[in-house]
Write a structure and sequence with these properties.
The chain has 5 helices and 10 strands. By secondary structure, it is α+β, with helices and mostly antiparallel strands. Strand 5, helix 3 and strand 6 form a beta-alpha-beta unit. It is globular.
């Protein structure tokens, strides 16, 4: 497994509009996912050990963000032919088992991952109420095996955003498995 860092889009980048299905086929549009205070978009998948390490944090995080007026959505963009564990039926089962409090969507043609310049899993992006990127990068210092998974970096960014402060100046890239791109 080769470690891949996130691309670190420029702050202020506009939220790309998208419409994607979840693992059961129900479709969601980006504008209906955002809360009044913003939206967290996180690229994940089922098989990545870096995502598995943060799995226990994701459902509670979604509930906390919702209470703060921030929507949350997870997106898998992996090639399911090469990585069948990431197929929509498995995504739906993962969301159910882990108690996700947010939609887990499938980006079959990988156009949404390209629009976000997503590079790895996990790869989170926080947008404010105006749809502008205020934070991207690692959720926290967690890595498989180190026992840390608390979304501390994201929580600081959310607190700053909700307080009307400018984006945090220190934002570290996320590190994880590279998105499994389809062969052309």
């Amino acid at each position: 497994m080769a470690l891949t860092p996130s691309s670190m889009l420029p702050l202020g980048y506009p939220l790309p509009a998208f419409e994607l299905p979840d693992g059961t086929g129900r479709r969601y549009r980006s504008e209906q996912l955002a809360g009044p205070a913003g939206l967290l978009v996180i690229f994940i998948c089922n098989h990545c050990p870096y995502v598995k390490h943060i799995d226990p944090v994701l459902a509670p995080l979604g509930a906390v963000l919702a209470a703060q007026g921030i929507g949350m959505v997870a997106i898998s963009s992996n090639d399911v032919v090469a990585y069948p564990d990431d197929a929509p039926a498995h995504m739906a089962e993962t969301a159910r088992l882990l108690g996700y409090t947010f939609p887990y969507l499938y980006d079959e043609d990988q156009s949404v991952a390209h629009a976000f310049h997503a590079a790895c899993t996990p790869d989170p992006y926080l947008f404010d109420a105006g749809g502008h990127l205020v934070w991207r990068g690692q959720l926290d210092a967690s890595r498989p095996g180190n026992g840390i998974a608390d979304a501390a970096d994201l929580r600081r960014a959310v607190a700053a955003m909700l307080a009307g402060q400018p984006p945090l100046t220190e934002q570290k890239p996320s590190i994880g498995c590279g998105i499994k791109w389809r062969k052309a």
